Amino acid sequence: MKITVKNKEYDSGKLVRSKYKDYSELRDKILSKQEDGKSYNEEDLDNMVSVLVKIFDNQFTEDDINDDMDVADIIFNFTSIDFSIMEKLDKKVEKVNEAFTKGKK
Q1: Into how many domains does the chain fold?
Q2: pLDDT tens for residues 41-52?
Q3: What distance in Å separates the CA atoms of residue 28 and residue 54, rounded to the nearest whole number?
Q4: Angle at CA 65, nearest 5°, toward 81 and 41?
Q5: Among residues 53, 39, 44, 59, which one has the least CA distance to residue 81?
Q6: Where is pLDDT greater, at 37 or 78?
Q7: CB 95 within 8 A of CB 42
Q8: CB atoms within 10 A of CB 68
Q9: Is the Cβ–Cβ distance between 6 and 68 less than 8 Å?
Q10: Rounded to whole angstroms, how far apart are CA atoms 2 and 76?
Q11: Residue 15: closest CA among 69, 66, 74, 83
């Protein structure tokens, strides 16, 4: 996954389970609030920023994100984590399918 903070692009590298746990716990907490009709509050945004910093191994600070990113970009980058996982998974499945198809000739 990639993110741009203060005009510099960063790569998250591997999304290991400890990082995913932090992300998924917050995602689930936020989703349950939204089901109750509540919107994002300051605590949610602070937690999203904190998780983004962890996902990217502290290559930038929470202040960097808070000073540089629009609120919509914070939310977008946080929610993009699931999309990034699915994209990597799709690529792996494609690769296996291609190898399987080549072997059938």
Answers
A1: 1
A2: 999 999 999 999
A3: 17
A4: 75
A5: 53
A6: 78
A7: no
A8: 15
A9: yes
A10: 12
A11: 83
Position 79, amino acid:
T
Distance CA 19, CA 90 (A): 21
Judged against a pLDDT cut of 90, whether residue 101 lies above it is answered with: no
Structural domain of 85: 2-103
Residues forming beta bridges with residue 5, ordered by sequence position: 8
- CA distances (Å), 35 to each of 20, 27, 29, 31, 71, in order? 22, 12, 10, 6, 21
Contact 10, 56 (CB under 8 A): yes
